[in-house]
Amino acid sequence: MNLRSIDLNLLVVLDALLDEAHVSRAAARLNLSQPATSSALDRCRHLFDDPLLERGKGGMRLTPKAEALRDPLKVLLAGIAAVVDAPEEPLSEIRRTVRIVTADHPGIVIAGPLHRALARTAPGIDLVIQPWHGAPAALESLARGASDIVLSVFPTIDEAAFHRETLLEEHYVVAMRKGHPAVEGFCLDRWLAYPHVLVSGRGDTRSDLDDRLAALGRARRIGIVVPSFLMVPPLLEDGDLIAMTPSHCLPPDAGDRFHLLPPPIPVPGFPLHLAWHRRRDRDRAVQHVAGELRAIFVGLS
Fold first, then answer.
1. What is the total count of domains within the chain?
2. Where do the H-state alpha helices sit in 1-63?
3. Residue 89 falls within a domain, yes or no?
4. Which of 30, 50, 254, 289 counts the most CB atoms within 10 A of its CB?
């Protein structure tokens, strides 16, 4: 039997017909017309290759096959109802692992607060923080089901397949050690007079900033390329290196440890996005973790 050809509504009508053993009463129970109910009975007879209801003394009676169908049919319909109308599982009873793809920042920002929030609200949800290898790889991981949530920047996205929302609007700051010689009279020339730190997980030696400088006929020297923002603060404290970083990629005490200045040329910021695959739209655990992430970033903005 091809299950795709079966109309579940037909089984609901059959259940009423087997209970009532009467077309008119079954029609009234289901708020259907008598012709529509009779038509459904004919389709059921064809589906099960059996009369199901036969005329007998005093009215209609169930055939042996119809009698055999009654209990399994009720179990089947009850199971379908339980799936469709399943009560929402209490957060305290959920046992799940939610996998989040993120770079080291904002990963280092969210890991502790998110773990503490889940310990209070959903202690059975465990976390796996997965490494970020670029936005395309992150979306592919969501599509494969290897990840549940991504924190990243997605300039474009297939909105039919993925949910995307903005958690915060990030901006850049220039950071250097206290007492750095570039601070006094800080300007483009003084900014470019010292070597810069560039963060690139792929080992790139240029960024969009270098293209902007080139358009002005200027260039900077990249003194060191590192794969993680976590490596930037110690490098700045030990010498005259300068870094331009997203503001939330610096440690909370950065204002006490470094000079923080706006870039001397306009540098647009970017949105940090929260994304998941549409099949997770009704996933209780994933949606709860997403809500806790929103709350964390509200506190940061």
1. 3
2. 8-20, 23-30, 34-48
3. no
4. 289
* pLDDT, position 202: 84
Q: What is the DSSP string of 103-172?
A: -HHHHHHHHHHHHHHHHHH-TTEEEEEEEP--HHHHHHHHHHTS-SEEEE--SS--TTTEEEEEEEEE-E
Question: Between the CA of residue 216 and those of 188, 207, 270, what are the distances in Å?
Answer: 11, 15, 22
Domain of 118, CATH number, reads 3.40.190.10
Domain extent, residue 108, equals: 94-169+271-300
pLDDT, position 49: 92
Tokens of 238: 């030990």
Q: How many CB atoms lie within 10 A of CB 41?
A: 20
Structural tokens at position 91: 């957060």
Question: In sequence order, what are the beta bridge partners of 61?
Answer: 54
* CA separation for the pair 176, 245 (Å, rounded): 11
Q: What is the pLDDT of residue 86?
A: 65
- The predicted structure's pLDDT at residue 9: 85
